[in-house]
Amino acid sequence: MLSAALIDPLIDAALREDLAGGDLTSECCVEPATAARAEAVARTELVVCGGELFARVFQRLDPATEVDRLRPDGALAQAGTALWRVRGRAQSVLRAERVALNFVQRMTGIATTAKRYVDAVPAGLATRITDTRKTTPGLRALERYAVRTGGAHNHRNDLGSAVLIKDNHIVAAGGIRNALERAKRLAPHTCRIEVEVTTLAELDQALELGADIILLDNMETATIREAVARVRARAPAERVPWLEASGGITLGRVPELAQAGIDVISVGALTHSAPAADISLEFAFD
Mutual orientation of helices 90-119 and 4-18 as an angle, nearest 10°? Predict the structure, then answer.
């Protein structure tokens, strides 16, 4: 769920942005007493997401506006399906229309993309699809909710959520050994330590030093298979680290990576490249 305390400031900022000079067209063309009904309709197959936020936009602008959620978040909707219904003052509905659609088209697009990646994991395999921190500034909570709505998982939420030692940390620390040993001394005992590697030699180091999670960055599938084999051969059963694949992940690679034995596939495209869903608001005036 998305709390009002979280979404109201985002909605208010978006409404201020769009209505800084009022709504000149609606004020000139539509009588204040005119009432309107409208339905948000899916134009393509999609995973519904953002219904609570859609309703909140209209009610934040005009509390008298009524919104019915016809399909729940997470539902698969076919083209032509009505998702949400709005009733209220025509001027109010027109003023809130674009802000409401902008939010839900973005969120529904992400949820739909996430489901495609999740569905690409072959049946019977437990590989997780996760997002990354490549989110729209200020909208991470909405986009990560959309990822979960599509059936995928979230990676670390922010820089304070986990230790993830990447290439620049390794350079700054003077090598993988220095970075990992320092992290193991200083990180909270409740925190897992993940390290990014780009070669099998770096993998061997991370394995030797006891990393909890090893991120295989931009590796070819054949190299990833070798990495999985090395980890399974060398790590004690009680200390087998999770293996994560990241970097240049396409939908077509998901099945082969999952079959190679990867535990987590992190996909920046879930948020930074998901196309907006095609949803339109169709009006009927009284």
Answer: 120
| Boundaries of every domain in the chain | 4-118+274-285, 162-267
Candidates 12, 66, 119, 166; catalytic one: 166
Cα separation, 71 vs 76, in Å, equals 9
CATH of 162-267, one of 3.30.70.270, 3.40.50.1820, 1.20.1250.20, 3.20.20.70: 3.20.20.70
- Tell me which DSSP letter residue 218 carries: S
Catalytic residue among 16, 43, 98, 234: 98
Range 4-118+274-285 has CATH code 3.90.1170.20: yes
- Count other C-beta atoms under 10 Å from residue 27's C-beta: 12
Q: Given the residues 69, 128, 134, 225, select the one marked as catalytic.
A: 134
Whether 154 contacts 148, CB under 8 Å:
yes
Q: Given this model, what pLDDT does residue 35 score?
A: 95
- Identify whether 98 is a catalytic site residue: yes
By DSSP bridging, strand 128-130 and strand 46-47 are unpaired
DSSP readout, 111-155? HHHHHHHHHTSPTT--PEEE--S---TT-HHHHHHHHHHTT-B--
pLDDT at res. 64: 97
Q: Judge whether 62 counts as a catalytic residue.
A: no
pLDDT in tens, 175-189: 999 999 999 999 999
> What pLDDT digit, counting tens, does each position of 201-218 carry?
999 999 999 999 999 999
> Quick one: pLDDT at residue 140?
96
DSSP H helices in 150-236: 167-173, 176-186, 200-208, 221-234
In this prediction, residue 24 carries a pLDDT of 96
In contact, 97 and 281? CB cutoff 8 Å: yes
Q: Indicate the helix (H) or strand (E) that contains 187.
A: none
Q: Which residues of the chain have pLDDT under 50?
A: none
